[in-house]
# Entry
Amino acid sequence: MPKKALDGLTESMFYVLMALMRQPMCGIEASEFIQKRTEGRVALGPATLYTILGKFQQVGYIRETEVVGRKRTYAVTELGQAAYAAEVERLERCLSDARREERREPLEGEDGDGAQMHLAPAPVPVL
Amino acid sequence: MPKKALDGLTESMFYVLMALMRQPMCGIEASEFIQKRTEGRVALGPATLYTILGKFQQVGYIRETEVVGRKRTYAVTELGQAAYAAEVERLERCLSDARREERREPLEGEDGDGAQMHLAPAPVPVL
DNA sequence: GGTTATAATATCGTTAGACGATATCATAAA
DNA sequence: TTTATGATATCGTCTAACGATATTATAACC
# Structure
């Protein structure tokens, strides 16, 4: 997905925020939550997990609420909640674009008659 | 999004396939299509665009159907269509997970009474 | 107390994707 | 033939993913 530093979240990042929004928790707990919620579809290794937690703390999407020994508990900030909401919207837009495409809707800025690229005779990718 | 080589498409990749499924076209046309369909939300530079086209050809998601001078026309293969469909499903899963989370649905494998992490007293991220 | 086990976090190194900037090439127009 | 234009190709840098491994703090046991 996105590569311009946190303009659009990756799937891993999205689920980390989702976990911490459910309830403040530590990294391991978040990772377990993600596996359960996605029924195993998404599984973060420690490297990805802690890289994301570190990054999110830097940019203020999450903050530490408790440190017991080595265990750090994180909560999502308002900024993080906004980023999560924006990501939901981005995903929805992708899907709604896909649906419009299935319907072969003409593009914006087309007058419905310009020799443009709508109503092609179906993809027909031979191979 | 995804980083394990094409296991899950990036947003850019997704829209490139969407463009070529509408109708076989060249890189520039695909990039123009994407800008229109997303109303400017997604815009690929030439580097991203041709990197993706090259990669997709390598893995067999698209194939060249015509070469006129420098202009190369691409079409989506069945493999590419499958990848696109899988991506749509992935996006749908992300959103449905998000919706389940909004409803605070308990996780799979929880008996509704285990001292687990559901029904927390709402996130309350103070900052 | 000292040793082992365990839970949790941290870091390294490699690979993949994003993208601005720029270069190259082919055709058409002047 | 020069110039313009449309289109593709490549360079370099940055960010993210992730397996493997190391580190550290608490708990459990003898």
Notes: The mean pLDDT of chain B is 83. The CA atoms of residues 54 and 82 of chain B lie 18 Å apart.
